[in-house]
Amino acid sequence: MKVLVTGGLGFIGSHTVVELQNEGFEVVIIDDLSNSSIRVLEGITAITGKTPIFEQLDLKEKDKVEHFFSQHKDIVGSIHFAASKAVGESVERPLLYYENNINTLVYVLKSVLNLKVSNFIFSSSCTVYGQADELPILESAPIKAAESPYGNTKQIGEEIIRDVCKVSPSLNAISLRYFNPIGAHESAKIGELPIGMPQNLVPFITQTAAGSRAQLSVFGNDYPTPDGTCIRDYIHVVDLAKAHVVALQRLLDKKNKENYDVFNIGTGKGSSVMEVIKSFEKVSGQKLNYRIAPRRTGDVIQAYADTSKSNTELGWKAELTLDDAMLSAWKWQKSL
Ligand SMILES: NC(=O)c1ccc[n+]([C@@H]2O[C@H](COP(=O)([O-])OP(=O)(O)OC[C@H]3O[C@@H](n4cnc5c(N)ncnc54)[C@H](O)[C@@H]3O)[C@@H](O)[C@H]2O)c1
């Protein structure tokens, strides 16, 4: 069964391609390499023994997207990762984010609707909840006004899919709201490849330990949390990748109750910035050079998922621990 993975050479996409190929799916990747490297294809091949079909294509080019789908009418599922994801950059360059994240979604969705089988999975984010009023966060929690154009593209993306599903009964779609993906494949052949300054905590930790950054700044240790630092739900990227395979299988087996559904993908457990640093120091045996810096504006204090819907309805559960994720991230950093 042929599955399209847009953004399949990126961090989460590449790990998902591995899990799809391990389960016997034939994978076609579309990626424009705007935030990834062609070398990721070698990593995928080394792990799975199979090279996915790869099309270097910018999904903002509508005609090319239509042409691609006309050549691949046998696609039975599409997983749409391709997007720009740097929150800070989205504040500086909002139109770039609306153009890339919204146009690509619309074009892919239009073509998916023309296929015989229309199954679609969208990369959403816990950012849609903002600072939730209640923890852990349920899928039914209110969507808060977006803090950034990036966050807004995820909210608008979900609304677009919901609206299309209402009038297109043949379309089956799932939005997966990821919490904080970290880690790398245990083989250290694929992982997170931040271009420039890392936006996320874990690559910053591993780069600091490897000596390519001087020091890690912990933004605020006076928050109302047990150790004063912010709390997030860190999900191992391999567990996250597997959630996509389970979600796709659900759609293929027509087990979905509605033709549009949303699931939280997290561990259900919050970890503080200090706990992440301690986990890194434990598994790597390295002392991390960090300092406490002032709070950063816009940081949510705590966010962690209620995973009961994904555990019971979707039938998926995170299996790997924070230590597993930190060890794999460190192995990946060393391989770089
Ligand atoms: N990493 C996170 O913390 C996180 C959290 C929540 C949601 N998400 C979402 O998950 C998805 C994947 O994230 P990631 O961390 O793997 O990001 P990534 O940047 O590593 O991967 C995205 C891939 O899409 C490609 N791409 C971007 N625009 C494209 C276009 N116009 N045409 C073709 N390819 C294009 C990039 O080259 C890249 O390989 C994104 O939609 C992101 O917003 C990520």
Overall pLDDT level: 97
**Count the strands?**
13
Low-confidence stretches: none
User: Radius of gyration, Cα only, in angstroms?
Assistant: 19 Å
Main beta sheet: 7 strands, parallel
Number of H- or I-type helical stretches = 11
Strand order of the largest sheet: 3-2-1-4-5-6-11
Span between termini: 34 Å
User: What is the 3D shape?
Assistant: globular
**Small molecules (ligands, ions, cofactors) in the structure:** nicotinamide-adenine-dinucleotide
Report the portion of residues in β strands. Answer: 15-25%
The H-and-E topology, N to C, reads as EHEHEHEHHEHEEHEEEHEEHEHH
Helix content: 40-55%
The helix/strand class is alpha/beta
Structure description:
This protein has 336 residues and is α/β, with parallel strands linked by helices. Helix content is 40%, strand content 18%. It has 11 helices and 13 strands. The strands form 4 sheets. A 7-stranded parallel β-sheet has the order 3-2-1-4-5-6-11, with helices on both faces. Helix 2 links the parallel strand 2 and strand 3. The two termini are 34 Å apart. The mean pLDDT is 97. The site of nicotinamide-adenine-dinucleotide has 28 residues, from helix 1, strand 2, helix 5 and strand 5.
